[in-house]
Give the backbone structure.
Amino acid sequence: MPWLGQAAIDWLRSPDWKIVDKALEWGQQENHHILSIEDERYPVLLRETVNAPPFLYVHGNLQTLNEVHLAIVGSRNPTPDGRQQAYEFSRSLALQGVSIVSGLAIGIDTAAHQGALAAGRTTLAVVATGLDRVYPASNRELAYSIAASGALISEFPLGTPPRAAYFPRRNRIISGLSVGTLVVEAGMKSGSLITARQALEQGREVFALPGSIHNPMSRGCHALIRDGAKLVENVDHIFEELGPLIRTVVSASCEGNKQATDLSIEGPAADEIFSEKLNDQEKRLLSCLGYEPVTPDHLVARSGLLVEHVNAMLVSLELSGYVTSLPGGLFVKV
């Protein structure tokens, strides 16, 4: 067994039979599976990677493991705009037949899983604990929803708690399952950059969404782009790179699907859509907002409107979904 290290071989020669019995009992439950790397149901792309896990615990539908997957990862503390982008990209890709892989973490991961589920499609969550627990606990209901149609995946034995060292190991499975990895928002020390680096080492494509130069959560994405990751503004940019591979596999399942969304609306057309129900002063204020965070005082100076009117309109525009408030009393256009 050349793919096993010496530590694994030693363990197999003298296993902890209580752990083995517990795993076998777990594997006999409905939709619970334990796959060895030699199992024909083991994910093909993952098997091709260096240091592929010798065993996978899977809770869910095994048929989803060999669909066409794209990983979407990013910050655990994203901006509202970043969270929305992850959701919309995931939903649009899922509607076009691509299964979304992420890590069940709060933030971008959660939004990516939710976007795929909103499209009525499958998503895979690769976790860094045993599958007899959910981490973070706040995503328990989300985990159940994922397992109902897609799958929860781990290489770690039952009972394994979350530990910092396990998450980089988890990340190589996320990228290894996928034809490419999209990083939505990431700081310079983000674990998402580890996933991106592992994707490159595995010979997979890496994509990154650009953001404001003032947003620290965009700096990791900008660094990836400088290092050669493909800059992405809409899903078409992903299909341009992966089109022959993805479209060949998913075209049949998407034939006649009219629900796919287009994320490439931009320029005057988008402004017309967003401003058609606003009064003149609201349109004036909205035109002074961009995609970089600004304070109400800046908007007063730009628009020439009274401060009390600006504050009132910002509340109204946020409730209507035209702007988003950020920590520190800042606002950005959605």
About this structure: The longest strand covers residues 55-60. Residues 267-333 form a domain with the Arc Repressor Mutant, subunit A fold (CATH 1.10.10.10).
